[in-house]
């Protein structure tokens, strides 16, 4: 099983937008509560497989989804 | 009942609006942005979709720039009080509703801002050059205009005014209470910095919904601070959109209905809605003008007005006419000053006001004809049973 990463977002609006953009691109994700040890801005985060991380981030950037780059 | 009070609130609503609200109440129920369970996520998606539909309707690139409020009055208060600072100067028009006048007048009375009023002519039409005459001489921070008058229906040439405001480094706030959903709005092409709208009129949603679009580069102070479901570890208000302006639990059931209303408009097309409402208005004006004793106000040309028509019948006060229409003809309309005393002063109908008919997408030519017949009977004193 490939390594997984958690992406943290600025607001609920961004998580929902990220989710819908990933669905359009057929990228599998899991919506999880933001891990407690991370100082979170939003209660929900997305977990995806590491090999698709760059593709996902590119999609987020081109669609204006605000994620926490500093936590990646 | 014939419903000609669509400028106050639209009726009926599309079935999809009621169904979306039922669906939320029966099967979803969660709060948006709070908790991460399936019901909360569904609610967050629903609010997100409503924002996306509105962004499509107004050509807004990033839907996060839309903030939800409870109505257009709240949106205008957020914009006016959040943007203006001591010493600022503002231009507005003599056609404004009290939702613009009262917050501006309050800031004026307390010595915080200076207000310049562009006077409309007796038809209720403002000339863009009148704005330029002031902008040339004064440093103006904000221009506030209604997109269409709730009294005369006259459409303000927003695009031309915004272009002039932009030239002089001023920002523009547009009150779209009477146009959102009934007239094409494109915030990019129209150069609109802030757009205030309500959900329960031509957007066909329920009461208690509204919003404010804030373009990038506009710095606004939030008027309400509190829980947003984000940045919960911090005791200071977040500075990102839309959370910065959406403290407290949102009206999710209302936004479910609003989303369905906007979706309905997108499916029908604003142009089609506009064309049909223009047609009804055109027929009404053409025939009403022929009725003896009926005096119409505002422009007659439907190309420069929305489906709002003000008139009086000689020998009656506006409220007498509305009362007879309601009691004897089962027709709903609104008499009086329509919360816009300045607009009535402009067209010469202050303080008695007018009778206002506001047609909607669901009105029919048959209803227009019945309304005309009623006016003719009232004017000829043939209404008494």
Describe this structure in words.
The complex is a heterodimer of chains A (72) and B (385). Chain A contains 2 helices and 3 strands, in the order E-H-E-E-H. Chain A is α+β, with helices and mostly antiparallel strands and 72 residues long. The mean pLDDT of chain A is 89. Chain B is α/β, with parallel strands linked by helices. Chain B is 39% helix and 15% strand. In chain B, helix 3 packs parallel to helix 4 and helix 9 packs across helix 11. The radius of gyration of chain B is 21 Å and the shape is globular. Chains A and B meet through helix 1 and strand 2 of A and helix 2 of B.
Count of the separate structural domains of chain B: 2
Biggest pleated-sheet summary of chain A: 3 strands, antiparallel
Mean pLDDT of chain A: 89
Name given to the CATH architecture of chain A:
2-Layer Sandwich
**Can you say what the CATH homologous superfamily of chain A is?**
Hypothetical protein rpa1041
Radius of gyration of chain A: 11 Å
CATH domain fold name of the largest domain in chain B: Aspartate Aminotransferase, domain 2
Which chains make the largest contact? A-B, 21 and 25 residues
Name of the CATH first level of chain A: Alpha Beta
The largest sheet of chain B has its strands arranged as: 2-8-7-6-5-3-4
Assign the CATH superfamily of the largest domain in chain B. Type I PLP-dependent aspartate aminotransferase-like (Major domain)
Overall radius of gyration of chain B = 21 Å
In short, what is this structure?
The complex is a heterodimer of chains A (72) and B (385). Chain A is α+β, with helices and mostly antiparallel strands.
State the main characteristics.
heterodimer, A: 72 residues, alpha+beta, Alpha-Beta Plaits, 3-stranded antiparallel beta sheet, 3 strands, globular, B: 385 residues, alpha/beta, Aspartate Aminotransferase, domain 1, Aspartate Aminotransferase, domain 2, 2 domains, 7-stranded mixed beta sheet, 4-stranded antiparallel beta sheet, 13 strands, 39% helix
